[in-house]
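Ticket #4471: complex job returned nothing on first submit. Input attached below:
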Amino acid sequence: GEDVEQSLFLSVREGDSSVINCTYTDSSSTYLYWYKQEPGAGLQLLTYIFSNMDMKQDQRLTVLLNKKDKHLSLRIADTQTGDSAIYFCAESIDTGGFKTIFGAGTRLFVKA
Amino acid sequence: SAVISQKPSRDICQRGTSLTIQCQVDSQVTMMFWYRQQPGQSLTLIATANQGSEATYESGFVIDKFPISRPNLTFSTLTVSNMSPEDSSIYLCSVEDPDRGRVGYTFGSGTRLTVV
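Support reply: We reran it on our side without changes. The output follows.
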């Protein structure tokens, strides 16, 4: 079946690193995404990784993909209070057409 | 990347009434998607709207309850019909960004609907 799971909450201190984890079940994923949702706003694409990659780095963001374990993580270095938001993991799967499956979101709290 | 304007941003509606949500994109896009985000839950795809054809609905969603229009390549509407409190959610439209293709989707800011 198609399922994306992630923990619901994460709390870190400002300046520390945050690691948000996600597992997915469908092995036909093509792209995996991390979206950020700030209060009252829509989803903003933060970063993505193609399924044949292991790692992608983009400034403070590092995405790690373990395809064997179907595990995706997002590391935010030097976490700031402005990083407080809900982070959604998502996978794009090929069902004849492409379909995107979202996790329930991880709410990141950054303490000053 | 594409910019989406979604209206209204929020509304409080009476049970049994209908609300139409509008989604305007600043560039032409082939596919537009409508999602529902219930409180504390993930996004659930309601339907995919292609210009010039009937919308394709996901399991659990029907056209009579969520009629969709797609009159051109930059605009779509979703109507939530005969509302009940269970329809209270955030509704989001999304497009496959023409600059990025399938590598990520752009979302509107959402419509927060409360049914009383």
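Chain B has a mean pLDDT of 91. Closing as resolved unless it happens again.
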